[in-house]
Amino acid sequence: MRAVVQRVARAGSTPGGSIGAGLCVLLGVADGDDEAVADRLADKIGKLRIFEGDDGRFDRSLLDTSGAVLVVSQFTLLADTAKGNRPSFSGAAPPEVAEALYERFCAALRELGVPVQTGVFGARMAVELVNDGPVTIILDVDARS
């Protein structure tokens, strides 16, 4: 799985939900990912210390700040551009597998106590956000990590 994690003042997707302060997570599910990968990535994101404490350092997590997450499925994060000018998406999981793992990822965040809103899996969406910082982190988790 690949996630682009953006710290936001607010974010929303149409169709879909919206959040106030927290994280916008663009999530790509790779072929070969499983529930264990989804759970590890959710745990990593829930505990990722990218919010500033009183001293201005990144020492607080989403769990510490009671922030929310907007999760948007984005298979294009798995694009392979090594050959030619047209991206290949052969590394992305098939839609039926990807949707189940996307839902598992969201459920794992909720199990941590994180409020989660989502886009609509497979839909064309307009995603709007106000990046806070800006702070943007790219995370890759697979069965081997």
Number of DSSP-assigned strands: 8
Give the helix level as a range of percent.
10-25%
**Poorly predicted regions:** none
Indicate the structural class: alpha/beta
Strand content: 35-45%
Shape descriptor: globular
Can you tag this structure with a few keywords?
145 residues, 6-stranded mixed β-sheet, 8 strands
Structure overview:
The protein is α/β, with parallel strands linked by helices and 145 residues long. Helices cover 23% and strands 35% of the residues. The protein has helices at residues 35-47, 62-65, 95-111, and strands spanning 2-14, 18-19, 22-28, 51-52, 58-60, 68-73, 116-118, 126-140. Strands 1, 2, 3, 6, 7 and 8 form a 6-stranded mixed beta sheet that branches. Strands 4-5 form a two-stranded antiparallel sheet. Strand 4 (51-52) and strand 5 form a beta hairpin. Helix 1 (35-47) packs across helix 3 (95-111). The radius of gyration is 15 Å and the shape is globular. The termini are close together. The relative contact order is 0.32.
